[in-house]
């Protein structure tokens, strides 16, 4: 089905595995398209309740494949036609998306991780704002998310100097949900993803939507949006199950409906 990624589903989790390990999973046009399509597919599959994006081999992704770049390239158009659809598909996904950063994430690879909802970070991974080293500006939403996560001053510093951030620095900056040792990597990522996949999926989607909405709304507008979202959550089967389980003094069994 796909050539540059692997797509697998297990226990309600969709795994999108970037699969050009010999090029550190650098993005080609085809890969941008396949990531976009796989995210769309996972978003629409009712059986999928969490999505993991990770890389094959020693890297998460080294960003744009520089072998594809030539001097006649219109970089603005490349972003509009290839990266924007991928980042928009990710932003509108109503299921939790986990970037399992198994190794180096550079350039747009770093951006993809920033745009995800959770970042699990291997102790041997690193983040690099590689753009400046090739005379470019961080793209693919990078400078939209990074200042919100770590503040303007630190985001500017990283974007300008492009230093490699190893696990200890990533932890200090609060850029990772969790740092995971190499030996526990696969089991911990799976456990985290499967835990999310057993939670009330609709409520998680509404939480994501609320946080996104809060960036562009007045408090009054936000409170209205909140009421609208809570009405939807309140009509879900998972809400009913949560209340029933509470009154029966047992653990809820959410179905994501
Ligand atoms: O038009 C547009 O603007 C589109 C949007 C662009 C967004 C971007 O992502 S721009 C930024 C592009 N990415 C980079 O500039 C990163 C370049 N790579 C690196 O800086 C380093 O490779 C890493 C820090 C990621 C990893 O370093 P290291 O020492 O672990 O590995 P390496 O030896 O440099 O790379 C290993 C191989 O992967 C090597 O190939 P070889 O020599 O073994 O055949 C290297 O050329 C290849 N590779 C690494 N990154 C890329 C790549 N090949 C193509 N494109 C890459 N981005």
From TrEMBL:
PANTHER family: EG:BACN32G11.4 PROTEIN, ENOYL-COA HYDRATASE. It comes from Sutcliffiella rhizosphaerae. InterPro entries: ClpP/crotonase-like_dom_sf, Enoyl-CoA_hyd/isom_CS, Enoyl-CoA_hydra/iso, Enoyl-CoA_hydra_C. Keywords: Isomerase. Gene3D superfamilies: 2-enoyl-CoA Hydratase, Chain A, domain 1, Lyase 2-enoyl-coa Hydratase, Chain A, domain 2. The gene is paaG. One of its GO terms (molecular function) is isomerase activity. Its EC number is 5.3.3.18. It holds the Pfam family ECH_1. This is 1,2-epoxyphenylacetyl-CoA isomerase. The keyword Isomerase applies. Belongs to the enoyl-CoA hydratase/isomerase family. The keyword S-adenosyl-L-methionine does not apply.
């Amino acid at each position: 089905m796909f050539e540059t990624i692997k797509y697998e589903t297990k226990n309600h989790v969709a795994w999108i595995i970037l699969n050009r390990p010999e090029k550190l999973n650098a993005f080609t046009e085809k890969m941008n398209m396949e990531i976009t399509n796989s995210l769309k597919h996972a978003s629409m599959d009712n059986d999928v309740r969490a999505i993991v994006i990770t890389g094959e081999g020693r890297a998460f992704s080294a960003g744009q494949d520089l072998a594809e770049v030539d001097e006649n390239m219109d970089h603005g158009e490349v972003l509009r036609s290839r990266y924007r659809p991928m980042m928009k598909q990710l932003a509108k996904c109503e299921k939790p998306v986990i970037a399992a950063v198994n190794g180096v994430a550079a350039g747009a690879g770093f951006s993809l991780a920033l745009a995800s909802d959770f970042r699990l970070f291997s102790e041997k991974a690193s983040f690099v704002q590689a753009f400046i080293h090739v005379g470019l500006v961080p793209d693919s939403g990078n400078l939209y998310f990074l200042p919100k996560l770590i503040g303007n001053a630190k985001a500017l510093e990283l974007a300008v100097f492009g230093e490699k951030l190893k696990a200890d620095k990533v932890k200090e900056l609060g850029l990772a949900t969790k740092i995971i040792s190499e030996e526990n990597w696969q089991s911990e990522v799976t456990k985290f993803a499967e835990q999310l996949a057993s939670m009330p999926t609709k409520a998680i989607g509404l939480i994501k939507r609320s946080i996104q909405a809060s960036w562009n709304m007045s408090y009054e507008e936000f409170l209205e949006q909140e009421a609208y979202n809570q009405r939807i959550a309140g009509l879900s089967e998972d809400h009913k199950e949560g209340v029933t389980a509470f009154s029966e003094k047992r653990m809820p069994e959410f179905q994501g409906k």
